Amino acid sequence: MRVICNSNSGKSISNRYLNLGFNVNSIFSVLIGKEYEVFAMSLWSQALFILLADENHLPSWFPLDLFSLSNPDLPGGWSFSSDLDNANGLQALWGYERLITDTSHYDGLLERDPEALRHFYEEERLHIDSGDHLPQEKMPS
What we know:
By secondary structure, the protein is of the alpha+beta class. Helices cover 24% and strands 27% of the residues. The radius of gyration is 15 Å and the shape is globular.
């Protein structure tokens, strides 16, 4: 799954996200016009977020409102969980296996835990090595 950044400003996000603590002055570390690989999606307090490597090459969750889909195909190997028992509003996760099966990994990414970052970068490397990051028409046969 790949997306193109249409905006990096809080002015472009809907009230659903503004009600979660973002504001119209929020600036997100993504570049307008750049295509990004999506590593996961989350439903948090009724709002959809996507996980990607930001412009500082850190895994970060972004409001989907900032992007449009350039390749809507979900990657092979993604898993889903809605059995999260999370009091902080996390309702569902789609993504790579460790994110779904290791309950501490999600928080570890948010807290920039070195072990969680290591696993994220391994997942990123797997996408690069498998060719999942290439547009469909450029993938080798």
